[in-house]
Amino acid sequence: QVQFVESGGGLVQPGESLRLSCVASGFTLDNFALGWFRQAPGKERERVSCISSSDGSTAYADSVKGRFTISRDNAKNTVYLEMNSLKAEDTGVYYCAGEVLALSCGLYAPQEYNYWGQGTQVTVSS
User: Fold this and answer.
1) pLDDT tens digit string along 2-54?
2) Is 120's pLDDT higher than 90?
3) Distance between CA atoms of 81 and 34, rounded to whole angstroms?
4) Residue 70 CA to chain centroid, in angstroms?
5) What is the 3-state secondary structure (H, E, C) of the chain?
6) Cα 43 vs. chain centroid, distance in angstroms?
7) According to the model, what pLDDT value does residue 125 have?
8) Nearest partner of 101 among 65, 25, 47, 21, judged by Cα
9) Which of 71, 96, 102, 113 is most enclosed, with most CB atoms within 10 A?
10) Is residue 126 over pLDDT 90?
11) In angstroms, what is the C-alpha Rg of the chain?
12) From CA 85, how far away is CA 38, in angstroms rounded?
């Protein structure tokens, strides 16, 4: 059974940092593209970042470029999202997801990922 479990969310002030982790079980990550997505109240789920399986290429939403970094450790079956200089607009539920994708992960919409975690809340507020 494929399962993702996120952790690391919390309440922080603007300008602070958080590191999200997502551990996979029931399979190995080697052939999966992995992504971090977020959903704010009243908004659609959006892709924050993703990392491909084949060449490790990454993609970022414009709103987080230069502040967030995605990485993966296949040996630990884990994907990370390092979030720096957090802003209020980064608030939302953050989900990790995985899928076997033929092309660069940046070309795929959230609905094309079939394996999802339960989410972790990130709140940025003063």
Assistant:
1) 899 999 999 999 999 999 999 999 888 888 999 999 999 899 999 999 999 98
2) yes
3) 11
4) 7
5) CCEEEEECCEEECCCCCEEEEEEEECCCHHHCEEEEEEECCCCCCEEEEEECCCCCCEEECCCCCCCEEEEEEHHHCEEEEEECCCCHHHCEEEEEEEECCCCCHHHCCHHHCCEECCCEEEEECC
6) 17
7) 97
8) 47
9) 96
10) yes
11) 13
12) 17
The string of pLDDT tens digits covering residues 69-97 is 999 998 999 999 999 999 999 999 999 99
Type of residue numbered 31? N
Q: What are phi and psi of 90, to 5 degrees?
A: -85, -5
106-119 pLDDT tens trace: 889 999 999 999 99
| Amino acid 79: pLDDT | 96
In this structure, are residues 96 and 113 in contact, taking their beta carbons and an 8 Å threshold? Answer: no
Nearest to residue 53, comparing CAs of 118, 123, 113, 124? Answer: 113
* Residues 4, 116: Cα–Cα separation, whole Å: 6
Provide the b/e sequence for 20-42 (b: ≥16 CB within 10 Å): bbbbbeeeebeebbbbbbbeeee
